[in-house]
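Predict the structure of Peptidase inhibitor family I36.
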Amino acid sequence: MTANRTDNAWTLNGLIRKGMMKRRGRTRILIPTVVSALLASAITISSPATPAWADENDGWCTDRELCIFEHWYAGGGRRDYFNGDLNYTNDTFWYWGGGPGPAPSNAIVNDRASSASNGDSQCKALLHEHADFAGSALLIWYRSGSSGLMVNDLGQYGMNDTISSNSWTDCI
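Done. Here is the predicted structure for Peptidase inhibitor family I36.
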């Protein structure tokens, strides 16, 4: 009986080896096909999702964004930032008009901010007086609850029409 088991095991082992040899040939062709199919489906499935940073600079002040306003109490043009920005010289305000949403403009943000809102719930925003995060900075705490922490008058902090860059700090 031991011999039969050994023979059966050998035969079975031989069949498995032969089968594996054949499967390896198919597997080599099959693996790239399966992998490429999975990648294609992953790309197709994940493409509709929009990362948060893609919503930056669209005129909508949403969660996780710092919003800079041209006038006091969130008036005039607005500019939204998800990431830090080294220099506002090339940034322009968005304006709300008669359309379904904000429209871009040619009004430069640099040294024209009078109010700001931090809509992020985990990071504090820093508004810097000069480009490259230099000069005096105003810290705006992260929001608590459903609305962003609003600074209605940057002039109360000596920062009216002086903001040139922003960064994020103390993220929890």
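The CA atoms of residues 24 and 43 lie 28 Å apart.
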